[in-house]
Amino acid sequence: MRTLTVNTSNQCYSIHIGRGTYQMLPRLMKEVGVEKDRKLMVITDSSVAPLYGQSLQASLRAEGYQVGMTVFPAGEESKNLSVVERVIGDCLQFGLDRSSVVLALGGGVVGDLAGFVAATYMRGIPFIQLPTTLLAHDSSVGGKVGVNHALGKNYIGAFHQPLMVVFDVDVLRSLPARQVHSGLAEVAKHALIWDVSFVEWLEAHAEELLALSPERLTEAIFRGCEVKSAVVSQDEKELGIRSILNYGHTIGHALEAVSGYRVYTHGEAVAIGMAGASRLSVRLLGAPGELVDRTEQLLRRLRLPIRYAENWPLPALLEAMKKDKKARGGQYTFVLSRKLGQVEMVRGIEEAEIVQTLKEISTQ
């Protein structure tokens, strides 16, 4: 097991990564003060519950914990206030109080929703992130929790840091290949924005990661979390440098929104967005042309798309980008690269430049 620490102004917590870490959960919880007199609530979805939820609940009960579990339908469509209200009702019925702890068992949707429940239940109770997808190595760290509104993704939320994050790489073997590829998009993002040596490592070990080598996955997740930890420790509430973690997300979120979250996974959309951001970086910031080549080659090696094939109207995509949370005063705002491993926020980008980029990353 590898461990690293996230330090923020409000909380210091550990990320534990390795094989069989869920079996260590009772010991790890005791280390952070979660004794057996504190009720636990596992919040998970309909895909994860039969795989890991029931066994986790049973193993914790065998250790003497009182453990409830609430399950909601899997999928982005469940990330809304109606589901939050139902889950909070289950927490109330089980008797959770302010000393209780939520266990967020699942992928990014579960982590976001369960974290939001923890942030708002009785004005905030502790929670532990137990990610079951590779993509969630990104979303489980940093304390951003929330749900979607009909007009946009993650518009309802809070900053609520977990007590700890426990990542068991063994559970990744149950993921469909597409979800593995999707998760590697956020791993690639952390490398592309921060660390050229990490880019080189991913280039060298792409096939082993796709084959789910436990050792390589542990290293990739550890290095990705290192980047996110470094950024979050400097800027907990996304007032400055933390915005660089949105590299590829302006286009990516627009593709998700226009498609109703039905065509691309989050990682796939972000991968296409990073391909677009690299091209925009060359034109607007004078980044070296190799940025596009290295970015697109890495994403291809990780079995990720770099073009979108759907004939979505440009006005709809542009409107979605104007609603991006980074935008100010209706100006288009992107995270762009000066060079591999160095990014910055750029505001006031001309619409014509974005239209040109969208045409370049479209197969239409």
Automatic annotation (TrEMBL):
Pathway: Metabolic intermediate biosynthesis; chorismate biosynthesis; chorismate from D-erythrose 4-phosphate and phosphoenolpyruvate: step 2/7
Catalytic activity of the protein: 7-phospho-2-dehydro-3-deoxy-D-arabino-heptonate = 3-dehydroquinate + phosphate
Residues that, per the record, bind Zn(2+): E186, H249, H266
Occurrences of domain 3-dehydroquinate synthase C-terminal (ranges): 183-327
Pfam families hit by this protein: DHQ_synthase, DHQS_C
Cofactor section: NAD(+); Co(2+); Zn(2+)
Keywords: Amino-acid biosynthesis, Aromatic amino acid biosynthesis, Cobalt, Cytoplasm, Lyase, Metal-binding, NAD, Nucleotide-binding, Zinc
Free-text remark on how the cofactor is bound: Binds 1 divalent metal cation per subunit. Can use either Co(2+) or Zn(2+).
Amino-acid positions noted as binding NAD(+) in the UniProt annotation, renumbered to this chain: G108, V109, V110, G111, D112, T132, T133, K144, K153
Annotated GO biological process: amino acid biosynthetic process; aromatic amino acid family biosynthetic process; chorismate biosynthetic process
Broad class of the protein's primary localization: cytoplasm
InterPro entries associated with the record: Dehydroquinate_synthase (IPR050071), DHQ_synth_AroB (IPR016037), DHQ_synth_fam (IPR030963), DHQS/DOIS_N (IPR030960), DHQS_C (IPR056179)
GO function terms (MF aspect): 3-dehydroquinate synthase activity; metal ion binding; nucleotide binding
Function: Catalyzes the conversion of 3-deoxy-D-arabino-heptulosonate 7-phosphate (DAHP) to dehydroquinate (DHQ).
Family note: Belongs to the sugar phosphate cyclases superfamily. Dehydroquinate synthase family.
Listed name of the protein: 3-dehydroquinate synthase
Organism: Laceyella tengchongensis
Gene of this entry: aroB
